[in-house]
Design a protein that fits this description.
Layout (H helix, E strand, L loop, with lengths): L16 H21 L1 H9 L10 E10 L8 E8 L2 E6 L6 E6 L4 E4 L1 E3 L5 H4 L8 H4 L3 E6 L9 H10 L5 E4 L1 E2 H9 L8 H16 L4 E5 L10 H13 L3 E5 L10 H15 L2 E4 L13 H13 L4 E5 L4 E5 H5 L8 H10 L6 E5 L11 H8 L3 H10 L4 E5 L3 H8 L4 E3 L16 H16 L5 H7 L2 H7 L15 E4 L20 E6 L2 E5 L2 E2 L14
Parallel strand pairs: 1-4, 1-5, 6-7, 7-8, 9-10, 10-11, 11-12, 12-13, 13-17
Antiparallel strand pairs: 1-2, 2-3, 5-18, 14-16, 15-16, 18-19, 19-20, 20-21
The structure holds zinc ion.
Length: 540
């Protein structure tokens, strides 16, 4: 036994036990003395010597839940303790104290859902829509915005605008290729010069530095359609340098130009040569002529993944899509003639498969199909469409997918959930019901009723899979240290209520929803809290 050279005390672990004991006694005495005079100071001094109590108070304690952690694993019974905006403990927390106790009453407790393809940014910037009830009611706590190559080029400005007024859900930004191209080249249909491509690279770099999670493109839409694959690879490479993703509304979801299979192949090439994670946005085979091609698309994705290319997809669970009448019937700035419209109407399943969602010039058309409008007016469907286009156009709901393709794509382990939905006033038009129901519908119709995927897989597709693909640190999972974005609901009751003719109906079933540790839905009722914020890629 070695002895302390100062006090000759025993020194069994390389520290002087006598001196350590004296120091402890001294501190204990000091605490007692200080307690009399400086109660607050004594508490902080004591904290250095007294181990943290395992039952220390939580801000929120969710008890009696079945925790499905987002990994794809089945649920386990556990309590979830939250401090500030983080999950502080997961497990048996019986007897723990908390300012707010939530009784999950045997419901599922899952991570809040992440919508990887959302058009909600414009709505979220409006004071009356910031809370985003249609989004929160689905259990969605984070939306990824600026999809399809759109959104502003100035992301710092967008972030300030969104953050300043508070938000219901969190928001992650993308930098849009189409917006970047327009900022540098206007509506030019040619290739960029060397100088222009440098400027575009600079704008993508600035967007990534301002916190974007990646680059989005909409190669079906102008001006994205004017870009060749090499241009997009150049810009995707910049996003890749920052660990960002490349998401794409592909060049052709049907057979307008190069076809949907070649368009998926283009995403794969951009991901491979750009050194970036590629995402096929809202993957589908559009139009009866293309039904069945989902298999050809997934075969290509799987071949690419097998050789090490990072490719994923997202999908919303409906047989109808939504876009503008112009983009559907006269895409890419084609001259609108009866012949062009006839061909593209046929491609989309005919005039009975195209329903008007918004038409400013005549609100009475909203909810009616082109076939019905043509019948009322005694004109051809092509003529009715041209008349609507001449009066400023319209947005449409377009019934063009096969349930077999939807199920095939959904069952893939690399398919994330998304809505592709916007956020509008509940009195505005007849928008696609996905705005209100996409996540609830995947859980109720596709998981619970049809069994296309099991519940664990469906939850994973909206939580840990998107957070991993987009590099969101500590979101989309329930574990200690993760962000406290949480949904509590009964898997037997969650459901969408929005329909194509009656779309402005919130989803049902969310008992509690928390965003950054703050309760935004409390026992089925909205609170007034706006705890969402714009996430930064670097910080998640
Ligand atoms: Zn799109």
């Amino acid at each position: 036994m070695r002895l302390c050279f100062r006090c000759s005390g025993e020194q069994p672990f390389g520290i002087c036990t006598r001196r350590a004991r004296r120091a402890f006694a001294y501190n204990a005495a000091m605490q007692r003395i200080l307690a009399g005079f400086f109660a607050a100071a004594a508490v902080s001094a004591a904290a250095a010597f007294v181990p943290a109590q395992p039952s220390a108070a939580f801000d929120v304690l969710i008890q009696n839940g079945r925790v499905m952690d987002g990994s794809g694993n089945p649920w386990l019974r556990a309590d979830v303790g939250i401090r500030g905006d983080r999950i502080a403990a997961v497990g048996r927390l019986t007897g723990a104290k908390a300012r707010t106790v939530v009784d999950a009453a045997d419901r599922l407790v899952t991570p809040g859902f992440i919508d990887v393809h959302s058009h909600a940014a414009e709505g979220l910037a409006r004071a009356e829509l910031r809370q985003a009830r249609p989004i929160l009611a689905q259990g969605v706590t984070t939306v990824v915005v600026n999809p399809d190559g759109g959104g502003p080029v100035d992301l710092a400005g967008q972030r300030a605008q969104l953050d300043n007024g508070g938000l219901g859900p969190n928001v992650a930004l993308l930098i849009g290729h189409g917006s970047v191209r327009r900022a540098v080249m206007g509506a030019a249909t040619r290739d960029p010069s060397g100088d222009e491509i440098e400027k575009m690279r600079g704008l993508v770099r600035r967007g990534m530095q301002e916190g974007a999670f990646g680059l989005s493109s909409g190669l079906f839409y102008t001006p994205g359609s004017f870009a060749d694959t090499e241009e997009v690879i150049e810009l995707a490479r910049v996003a890749g340098e920052y660990g960002g993703v490349y998401t794409s509304h592909v060049r052709d979801e049907a057979d307008y130009t190069i076809g949907v299979v070649a368009s998926v192949q283009e995403v794969i090439r951009i991901a491979e040569e750009g050194g970036v994670v590629g995402v096929v946005s809202h993957m589908k085979a559009l139009g009866p002529d293309n039904w069945g091609l989902a298999t050809a698309m997934t075969v290509r994705i799987e071949a690419a993944r097998a050789r090490g290319v990072q490719v994923f997809a997202d999908q919303y669970p409906y047989e109808a899509s939504s876009t503008s009448l112009g983009a559907a019937l006269v895409p890419g700035g084609v001259v609108p003639t009866i012949d062009v419209v006839r061909g593209n109407l046929r491609r989309r399943g005919g005039p009975a498969a195209v329903q008007i969602a918004f038409h400013k010039a005549d609100r009475t058309l909203e909810g009616k199909t082109l076939a019905a409008i043509a019948g009322e007016r005694g004109v051809s469907a092509e003529q009715a469409a041209l008349d609507i286009l001449a009066k400023g156009g319209a947005s449409i709901v377009s019934f063009n997918m096969s349930e077999q393709d939807i199920a095939h794509i959904m069952a893939k382990p690399y398919t994330m959930a998304s809505s592709d939905g916007g956020l509008v006033l509940m009195t505005e038009g007849k928008p696609h019901p996905r705005n209100y129901g996409a996540f609830a519908r995947k859980l109720s119709v596709y998981a619970r009723e049809r069994g296309v995927v099991d519940f664990e897989t469906a939850i994973r597709s909206m939580t840990s899979l998107p957070s991993a693909v987009f590099g969101m640190k500590d979101r989309g999972v329930i574990r200690e240290g993760a962000a406290a974005d949480i949904a509590v609901f009964d898997p037997a009751f969650v459901r969408d209520r929005a329909t194509y003719l009656d779309p402005h109906r919130l989803a049902e079933g969310m008992a509690y929803v928390l965003v950054n540790g703050i309760v935004v839905i409390d026992n089925g009722a909205f609170t007034s809290a706006l705890p969402g914020r714009v996430l930064l890629k670097s910080k998640g």
